[in-house]
Fold:
Amino acid sequence: MDARTLEIDLLIPDEESLILDNQNQIEKELLLEEIMPEMDKRDDFGIDMLFKVLLFMFIAFAIAFPKIHFNNGIYRLSREISHLEKQYKFLEEENLILQRKLEKQKFKSEVLDTIF
Structure:
């Protein structure tokens, strides 16, 4: 046998593999015939399903939006309170510094008055 006849023999399927392929094809068709009526009954993506999904999304948004809005409001208020507390502490420190300066000035004034 030369290489050319060997290639031709490999390309021609034998009778047994043809019978197996035919049986597999018949089994696939039988399974498909059994499944198709069930798949036709299930119309999962119709207008009703679309309406249900949109309604669910609207309800979820209606529930989540106020919560998000209130949480953002609380966050903004806490930031504002924190800013005001920092300003208050800064002003208290500045007040203490000014009081000390005033006490020093009063002390100098009293000392100078007693000297002269």
